[in-house]
Amino acid sequence: MKKTGAEIVFESLKLEGVDTVFGLPGGAVLTLYHAMGKYSEEIRHILVRHEQGAVHAADGYARSSGKVGVCIVTSGPGGTNTVTGLATACMDSVPLVVFTGQVPTMLIGNDAFQEADITGITRPCTKHNYLVKDVNDLPMIIKQAFHLARTGRPGPILVDLPKDVIAASTDFNYPSKLKMRSYNPTYHGHPGQIKRAAKLIAGAKKPLIYAGGGVILSNGSKELTTLAQKLSIPVTTTLMGLGCFPGTHPLSLGMLGMHGTFHANMAVTHCDVLIAIGARFDDRVTGKIESFSPHSKKIHIDIDPTSISKNVPVDIPIVGDARNILKTLLKYLEEEAGHDWGRKHADWNNQITGWKNNTAPQDTSCGPCIKPQYVIEKINEITQGDAIITTEVGQNQMWTAQAFKFTRPRTLLTSGGLGTMGYGFPAAIGAQVAFPDKTVIDIAGDGSIQMNIQELATAVQYNLPVKVAILNNHCLGMVRQWQQLFYEQKYIQSVFDVVPDFVKLAEAYGALGLRATKPEEVERVIRQALSTPKPVLMDFLIDQNECVYPMVPAGAALTEMLLV
Amino acid sequence: MRHVISMLVENEPGVLSRVSALFSGRGFNIESLNVAESLDPTISRMTLITSGNEQIIEQIIKQLNKLVNVVKVMDLTGSDFVDREMILVRVRAEATSRAEVLRILEIFRGRVVDVSPKSYTLEITGDEKKIQAMVELLTPFGILEIVRTGKVAIMRAKKDSSHPGKVQEQKSES
């Protein structure tokens, strides 16, 4: 049966199991939106207020649910507004398919109205992208786009749709099979390498697991937890890995790196075997490369070969899916008979406990001002950890990573790689769309919440009861912190003279606004917000001087931590 | 160290820009790049000369392999291969030097492709050393213009087997 390109898009989405898209119409995609009317029963469209919001929302939807997030935006500025969202998703390996409108094929290259070379622009910040030139290619391209997005190391795919292509008609046959000669991700690790890794782990005295977002992406949390528990191996995670191992577990050391815990950074420096799983030795994790984990043999499990030995030379690389490899690794380790792992690693675990006990716990008690960590701990306590938490970027993000005890995968959505301020709120909207009954909270700063504040209208329109906790210090806190510590306490352009009244702002959008100025108001505000079945902005006025500690200065070794 | 990387890519628009953008975006260096259709019209062959230490070359090969349009990547360096480059040179050829230019050209088995009263345009093919020697010999006459193709390279056929050479794929290490 003949279908138009626009209909083919929606028929294909249905066949890919997509029931939700995020987007904003414009001239070049009107044909697409016109066709959408016919599919409104099967495919729900969430109308955002800015295209960046659409991509971050689709990203939050994808990270929380594990499904592919889908967006539709128009040509030109519609497309360019998605760039930050695409780069965010690309760095953090989030599966997205973004459809952009494009001017008619015959006008491409003519500097037509709302024309942008979006495939050219997004080449470095997508996993792959397509410009569809013939409606007959459309089904295969969409099939490939979804395949590429969700397989291997996941990532965003952009499909550029010229106006005449979506208007043209053809016989619609969605390909059932797909073969791409140039794309064959490796899923099963090399057994020989896994055996070597098992031998190395079995002989280790001070092993340490360093787990990243790849564990979550491969749904390997259960396998990781089993491995760590059976062998009594302590686990530190990256920011992206938080939640892949229960933060409340005795073997959990919390996050490592620039704002990691003292004992995690000491453990990584002193371990003799480092087992990196789905992590990529990012500069925020390693600090000064030369002094990163200098005494260890390194095993690196990753599905992306380019991650291996990119920053840190690795002794045993294993390319493949983290979950598959963990299963095999565990099998081989169980064959290593005669080990009393608990006793074998007792000294090592005691040493780590020693480091832990030697650090004075962060003072999160409040003086006259509200401490941000106190707000986060209260949220953790009141929700009993059963919430999807998103963050913006900066101090709010690091305080959340430190103070909230994530116990399940896909419960922390944060822009780890690109560090995109303005990510958290639209991502929370996406997560709430995926999980209407869950508590979804964006922990924000007053700087970053203003970067996508317009999406309050989206949250109100769809009655998405997203909660935003603004840790309001009237400044770009992390910038100010660096200026305090490394730039002679000259706070140049980091302090806001004007900050909106967030309570009134929330009300203006039809949401609820609440404010806490004193520590004793915090709990009441959180409880009221959580019991309100609509979007709520909570404005917590915090101390401007509060910094994120511990901190490893950029370029320093992990052991050179500033603790207070 | 210099490396000759030979790769097969999908013959589609935008592939060249993906490859070149990868090099510029990641701070790798391209010394020369040559692209043309292969025996299979849906596939193009790219021959790329780059340099870097072992770790950089490893990253380049892995990153190239990661591009969705790249079918196969081979690092020819270290294996037995033949490479050639062609140059077109316009050299000054006055009455006194015309014969000498032609004599040098003959030694290098080149050809004259264009003649004018005061110059010859010459075509010379060879490996890097030969081309360089030719250019050095012609310089005293006065080189007016020079155009180079960049290298193309092919693996030598093994005398005893049909093994096409070592294919460097990222999977080989795991």
Q: So what's the overall shape of chain B?
A: elongated
Tell me the name of the CATH class of the largest domain in chain B.
Alpha Beta
Total strand segments of chain A: 20
Please state the overall shape of chain A, judged from the principal axes of the Cα atoms: globular
Helix content of chain A: 25-40%
Residue-averaged pLDDT of chain A, rounded? 96
Order of helices and strands of chain B: EHEEHEEHEEHEE
Kindly report the CATH topology of the largest domain in chain B: Alpha-Beta Plaits
Q: Sheet with the most strands of chain A? A: 6 strands, parallel
Q: Pick out the low-confidence regions of chain A.
A: none
Rounded to the nearest angstrom, the distance between the terminal CA atoms of chain B is: 25 Å
Placed side by side, the strands forming the largest sheet of chain A appear as 3-2-4-5-7-6
Q: Largest sheet of chain B, if any?
A: 5 strands, antiparallel
Distance between the termini of chain A: 69 Å
- C-alpha Rg of chain A (nearest Å): 24 Å
- The number of helical segments of chain A is 24
What would the keywords be for this entry?
heterodimer; A: 564 residues; alpha/beta; Rossmann fold; 3 domains; 6-stranded parallel β-sheet; 20 strands; 38% helix; globular; B: 174 residues; alpha+beta; Alpha-Beta Plaits; 2 domains; 5-stranded antiparallel β-sheet; 4-stranded antiparallel β-sheet; 4 helices; 26% helix; elongated; disordered C terminus
Q: Could you give a short description of this structure?
A:
Chain A is of the alpha/beta class and 564 residues long. Chain A has 24 helices and 20 strands. Chain B is an alpha+beta fold and 174 residues long.
